[in-house]
């Protein structure tokens, strides 16, 4: 993703996923694209921003904690999580934050 997400007026929630990848693609790129496509179809999804380098950071934005829980529990997303634990990530953290203010140009 190279665009800044166009989010609504706060409050809303951000899920921040920081990760270090293992060597090789091993199907990661295709699954990452599918997860963005699937997330965009989920109720309560507001947008996503992602940068992948030595440290990958993806921030997805959601209307509510319930929408985040439903996304976490999505069967296809759960399979991607399982594969991430097994083969794609050497380290990761998920942080959930409430966005109370935003500004920019």
TrEMBL record:
Keywords: Monooxygenase, Oxidoreductase
Chain ranges of the ABM domain: 11-82
Superkingdom of source: Bacteria
Gene Ontology MF term list: monooxygenase activity
Keyword Membrane recorded: no
Source organism (scientific name): Idiomarina rhizosphaerae
InterPro entries the record matches: ABM_dom, Dimeric_a/b-barrel, Jasmonate_Hydroxylase-like
Protein name listed in UniProt: Antibiotic biosynthesis monooxygenase
PANTHER family the UniProt entry points to: ABM DOMAIN-CONTAINING PROTEIN, BLL5343 PROTEIN
